[in-house]
Amino acid sequence: MLSYIMKRILSAIPVLLVVSIVIFLIIHITPGNPASVILGEEATPEQIAELEESLGLNLPIHQQYFSWIAGVFQGDLGTSYFMKAPVTESIANSIVPTISLAIFAQIIALLIAIPIGVLAANKRGSFADSSMMVFALLGMSIPSFLLALLLVLLFGVQLGWLPVAGFRPLSEGLLIHLQYLILPAISLGAIQAALIARMTRSSILEVLNMNYIKSARAKGVKNFSLILKHAFRNALLPILTVVGQTFGTLITGAVVVETVFNIPGIGQLVINSIERRDFAVIQGVVLFITVLYIFLNLIIDILYGMIDPRVRLDRK
Amino acid sequence: MQNETLLEVSNLKTHFGSDTGFVTAVDGISFHVEEGEILGVVGESGCGKSVTAESILRLHDEKFNTMYEGEIKYKGENLLKLPLSKMENIRGNEISMIFQDPMSSLNPVYTIGNQITEALLLHQDISKKEAHNKAIELLELVGIPSPEKRITEYPHELSGGMQQRVMIAIGLACQPSLLIADEPTTALDVTIQAQILDIMLRLNKELKMGVIFITHDLGVVAEICDRVAVMYLGQIVEEARTIDLFEQPLHPYTSGLLESIPKMDGDRSKKLNVVKGSVPSLDSIPQGCRFASRCPFADELCLKEMPELRPFKDEEGSKVRCWHAEKILNERKKEHVSTD
Ligand SMILES: Nc1ncnc2c1ncn2[C@@H]1O[C@H](COP(=O)(O)OP(=O)(O)O)[C@@H](O)[C@H]1O
Ligand SMILES: [Mg+2]
Q1: What superfamily in CATH does domain A92-315 come from?
Q2: How confident is the model at residue A256 (pLDDT cuts 50, 70, 90)?
Q3: Closest ligand to residue B232's CA
Q4: What backbone torsions phi and psi does residue B210 show, to the nearest 5 degrees?
Q5: pLDDT, tens digit, 9 for 90 and up, residues A57-82
Q6: Cβ distance B225 to B39 under 8 Å?
Q7: Nearest residue on chain B to A217, alpha-carbon basis
Q8: What is the pTM of this model?
Q9: Domain locations in chain A?
Q10: Is the pLDDT of residue A160 over 50?
């Protein structure tokens, strides 16, 4: 298993290089001169040229790329000219709320979706099944910002049970941390919950048609354990795939939700940096998120191996 | 035969619902199995053999699209009337089933040890440790070498033949009185097939277990079965003791099947389709005799009215579903005389 993980990490390097080139080109080809943005309307051409030189923007683009990527390999993503601080530091500061939010949203989505999916599959064709699936369809089609606003109106403004916006770090205590995070997490996780619920249902139904389910039933296995022991574990693989593929969209989706709830996460960092033409930060964040995606996929693959012995690679 | 009757199926019908209406895959089947007896069930594929077998254990879910009719009396109790929880106690305990395709009948994500002990723990009041030891004994019984090691393996680590042995071990775990084997050797090659049959025969003798052996291979039937029921399109068309069936088939369909047995020196895997035509589909069942469209002897009566399964006068215990069985038999005898 260890050598498999090493191999996967090594094979990610070319992917990262290509991604880094693409990010770099897209950002540098889009119009908008950062030097003039920083200096404002009244800047003279001399001032602009001077700043470009100090930022290295006057060099040929491939030289700019190489000096950036050389830094990346040493863990240096460059310096934000706006914040006058290393990009790694800004990312480190704003990633924590985002990850917190995404993980909490994921947990809520799983806690809601899997039981619903299992129940619906068990009662397939019944009224309960169709109402749960209609509910899931609704969850999939409601935009997260709208859901966010509705939740804030109900629980924040009307009932006053939960804070309307803001963020408290974990260091202030788990309870208060979650209190601030719960509405954003629900708004963010709703679409995922709906997706997972539908996937769980269809995946279990598919497995229930398998021969090994019939033979387990012929053995005398009760319906309950037929679904929870024999079907569920097999159905978990496609569910896990959906979770893996959509966890990344949770991070991107967090941009919207962070804005509504005013959470100082990666989303706000990106939006602010785009407004400021802060290239170093934008590049750094996108590259960082790519690494995160690759890392997540690796974890999902390892989980596959834990669930399904046929994918286990180290058994000899 | 002074044995007790173990299973008595009367007028069993199995209907499946679909978007386009109901189909009746098993249409009024009656037969019985005695203690220690091996009953063969033969017929081309699609004739309803598997559905019959699975109906005995009520494996098709009545809550969704299946409806059973008739009576399945096991040791005097009608299984179709039992509540589900009682039925679950019978499955795998009193009546076990082995399926056609061993490769897909074991759950891929659990070890074979887990799947054997599951059967034991479900029906017997024993500890996990005892179940584990018993599972090893069972693997030995069905001829799996180094069972202590095999028991920790997953299905995909075993060959098809080994997987079928595991299925048999699961089937036998609780010493059932009746074993239903649905084409247990079809997916396996010939030498493995012989070994598996051997195991089943031995256990049938040793444990006095009744067996329903489903197959489309009449050669196997001749080797192991006491009695045979021939199925065609959801019905039994002939029932007889094995010797009688092979010496004197009564139904034209049976004769056709017998002629299609490949010779021992021929290629056994090659299918000889001597019965011309194919089984009609369930939604276009003919009005009269179901075999009429393929029968060389069919006349007006056959096309109009369905014959009943009736006892055949000259042969004790034989039953046939054909208007002209006697006539056909006489003609064949005459032919024999004239060619001799
Ligand atoms: N669950 C089901 N729903 C609808 N039709 C079925 C179902 N299972 C089997 N059948 C139909 O019943 C008929 C008999 O099938 P089967 O018992 O598997 O045949 P055999 O085992 O003799 O080859 C076939 O026409 C098949 O299509
Ligand atoms: Mg079959």
Answers
A1: MetI-like (1.10.3720.10)
A2: confident
A3: 1
A4: -75, 145
A5: 778 888 888 888 888 888 888 888 77
A6: yes
A7: B59
A8: 0.82
A9: 92-315
A10: yes
